[in-house]
Design goal:
Blueprint lengths: L1 H7 L4 H20 L2 H4 L4 H4 L5 H12 L5 E9 L6 H17 L29 E9 L5 H12 L2 E2 L2 E6 H13 L2 H21 L2 H27 L6 H5 L1 H26 L3 H29 L6 H22 L1 H9 L25 H11 L1 H16 L20 H10 L10 E6 L7 H12 L4 E10 L5 E8 L6 H4 L4
Antiparallel strand pairs: 1-2, 1-4, 3-4, 5-7, 6-7
Helix pairs in contact: 1-13, 2-10, 2-15, 7-8, 8-18, 9-10, 9-12, 10-12, 10-14, 10-15, 12-13, 12-14, 13-14
Length: 499
Amino acid sequence: MRGLASIVAGRRSKWVVLVFWIIAIVVMLPVGSKLSDETTDDTESFLPNSAESTEVVRQLDQEFSAGETTFGLIVYQDKNGLSAEDRQKIAADAQAIQAAGKDKVPLTQPPTVPFAPGSPSNLVSSNGEVAYTVLNVPTNFDEQGKWGKNVRDITGESAGDMQIYVTGDLGFSADADEVFSDIDTRLLLATVLLVLVLLGAIYRAVLIAITPLIVVGFAYIVATGFIYLYANSGATVSSNSTAILIVLMFGVGTDYCLLLVSRYREELRRLEDKHDAMQRALRRSGPAILASGLTVSLAMLVLALADAGNTSSLGPVAAIAVFCAMVGGLTLLPTLLTIFGRVGFWPRRSVVVFDPEHPSMARQGLWRRFGDRVLERPGAALTVTVTLFAAGALGLLAYKVDYSTTSFFKGSVESVEGFEVLRGSFPAGVLAPSTVLVERNDGPVTQADIEKAVQTLSEQKGVARVTPTGLTSDDGRIASLNLILEGDPLKVNSLDLIP
């Protein structure tokens, strides 16, 4: 650590370190800007490789010409009953969607339209007030939101007394795009503001409060560049993993800054030269920063052992981010603090005035007094701490996993409104039918095979109905069915029925 300290806080070498980081930014900025093009959010990337549902996705992609598909539902409601004009509108919407072409809505098969000759009767509610059209499109998480918006542009929100809702995967993706499109920007602004407020309150010095933002910003750009190279090598990186980087890096980066600034402030009172003060401060706090950064990086890599794809892909991404933040904390941070010197603590330069006779005055603040009380009564401090932790842990008793789309959005959105209308008249499972594959190994699957599977599944508790899709694999050995559950298909009690 002594050699590193002499470089990053040297009289001339500190400028070399700063130039090195600037060059790294210039090189990595265009590389990291392409990271979003390399992220993968398909179904298989979120699931364990050994899961049966993963095998279903593979079979759909490899054996069926249409590949894996997803649903869009157009819900029509007229509380006075769907009239002849309403039915004409429903038919016209389906025709317009088909005519829009593959660029707008790439249907894998014609829409299933209520009231049309030969269409299933279960697309219309028993009271005749609600009906829905089914759209099948390829599974593409990047494009589904756009397709959902295109469908809404075609259908509109109402026609006379009839209300129209686009829900299902297309509707939810469209709403998610609108609600979360600027979430990274809002997250960044909120994090930056929080860090500024906290560091401003702690140090009450402008440059010291800004320094962690500069360090983390530089480290973030470098990290995204390396993560892009990692993803480009063939590794799976999801957008969920990259979205967490801002908060993660600001967390560890600010922590490293607090460690070093606190020690640097003490050394400036002991040593007159700012370079000597920083070198001594880094020699004393550097090992803690290094140990923390390596520990967290290695701990993050453990996530790579997880079965779930979205968790395992997070591990290397988070490790790269934390490692870059640590390197920034050991190099760029001391370099900037050394360049700023005592001026960096303006307008409270008095706390870093050279005063070797009273080096501990800067430490007689609120937290020093708090620490002294803890040392005086460690038993009481431990009791209070354990009590607070235990009280917080009680929340685990009430914790329940809920994957329902109705609780996904804080505000009201069209897809959730459409789902509420839908499940008032139909089984809630129509929102997201489960795909069942019927496979015969010794030849083409037969109608008897399909009928037997339908009968067996229909007899199970919680199953509303099972419908053959009419789709078979290219070699005819596999047929697909849509299984519709009675309850919300994404709630735990419904998911428990699948085994």
